[in-house]
Amino acid sequence: MGSASPQDPFYIVREEIQGSIGKLQSNFHRWEQAASNTGEYVHLTKELLTSCESIEWQVDELEKTITVASRDPAYYGLDEVELSRRRNWIGSARNQVGTVRTSVEKGKSNSAMARHQDLTGTSRTNHYSSQDNDDYIDSESDRQLLLMRQQDDELDELSESVIRIGSVGLTIHEELSGQERIINDLSLEMETTSNRLDFVQKKVGAVMKKAGIKGQIMLILFLVVLFIVLFVLVFLT
């Protein structure tokens, strides 16, 4: 008991979240290399904060399953070692996401302060010709369009991941409900069998009292002969 199967819903969801964390860290490295006064930096900042919020929610939901399992670990086939391993992973995931969130929020604040200083500073002379300005605007528009398309694709992937996690959660609920029904049915059958045995014992006791000593001896001999016949039929034929 305590060894978790690769098909354990916890590990399926954990792999989904770990993949999201890997993608989050990849985008975070891109964000660190991007200049703070570019459209790419602004886009990555928004995307990273959105991803952090989504992953934190998924980790919270997964932690709830650990809380439920810890109330009766044996029922779910777990032990304290496995529960501790799962709690450690939850803590590690939170730390990874929290580190990214803290850095991005700090960078966002610094970037806003820098833009404010630029706006309140001295005016700068425009050295670009009208044609250069048009080319710059066209280039920047293409870049913004590309970033918007990338964001749409990433949001679609995030939505699919949330749907998959929700489906796994529903599967966990159905499995738990099925196990509860099986246990209830087994308890009912055991109670019914116990009642029948009590009834038979009372009947046998009544018969033994009515039969007297000789009748009891005859009944015992009859049961012994019946047992021998059944033994021969079952094991020797």
Task: Describe the structure in your own words.
This protein is mostly helical and 237 residues long. It is built from 4 helices and no strands. Helix 1 packs antiparallel against helix 2, helix 1 runs antiparallel to helix 4 and helix 2 packs parallel to helix 4.
Can you lay out the helices and strands and say which pair or pack?
Layout: H1 9-33, H2 39-71, H3 80-120, H4 130-235
Helix pairs in contact: 1-2, 1-3, 1-4, 2-3, 2-4
Shape label: rod-shaped
| SS field, number of helical segments | 4
Order of helices and strands: HHHH
What Rg, in angstroms, do the CA atoms define? 35 Å
Low-confidence segments, given as residue ranges, are none
Report the mean per-residue pLDDT as an integer: 79
**What structural class do the secondary elements suggest?**
mainly alpha
Give the gist of this structure:
By secondary structure, the protein is mainly α. The chain is 86% helix and 0% strand.
Name its key features.
single chain; 237 residues; rod-shaped
